[in-house]
From TrEMBL:
Superkingdom in the source lineage: Bacteria
Location of this chain's protein in the cell: Cytoplasm
GO function terms (MF aspect): lyase activity
Name of the protein in question: Citrate lyase subunit gamma (Acyl carrier protein)
The species this protein was found in: Dethiosulfatibacter aminovorans DSM 17477
Keywords per UniProt: Cytoplasm, Lyase, Phosphoprotein
Keyword Lipid metabolism: no
Cellular component per GO, a single term: cytoplasm
Pfam families documented for this protein: ACP
Length: 91
């Protein structure tokens, strides 16, 4: 169990990029996608985040993605980096 929530952010507010904020919790996984194209690609964006969380065996996290036209591999990379930073704080 985490003593307190650990938070980390990765990314830039530039075209073809995204900002991912990960907050580790003892709770369940919540993913919030903020994107102009959420109606079209929201499910794929959420799947990209969930794939990374599963890869790291994370059971509780609040993840916010602010999308500026990022492709899936960018979302995954930003999520991995933010998650590694948050996990580093826990250790």
């Amino acid at each position: 169990m985490l003593a307190e929530n650990k938070k980390a952010t990765c990314g830039r507010e530039k075209n073809s990029d995204c900002v991912v904020e990960v907050e580790l919790t003892n709770d369940r996984i919540n993913i919030d996608i903020n994107s102009k194209i959420k109606n079209l690609f929201g499910k794929q964006m959420e799947k990209a985040v969930r794939d990374v969380l599963e890869e790291f065996d994370v059971k509780g996290a609040n993840v916010t993605v602010r999308d500026f036209g990022a492709l899936d591999f960018v979302i995954k990379a930003r999520t991995k980096t933010a998650l590694r930073q948050a996990l580093k704080e826990v250790q």
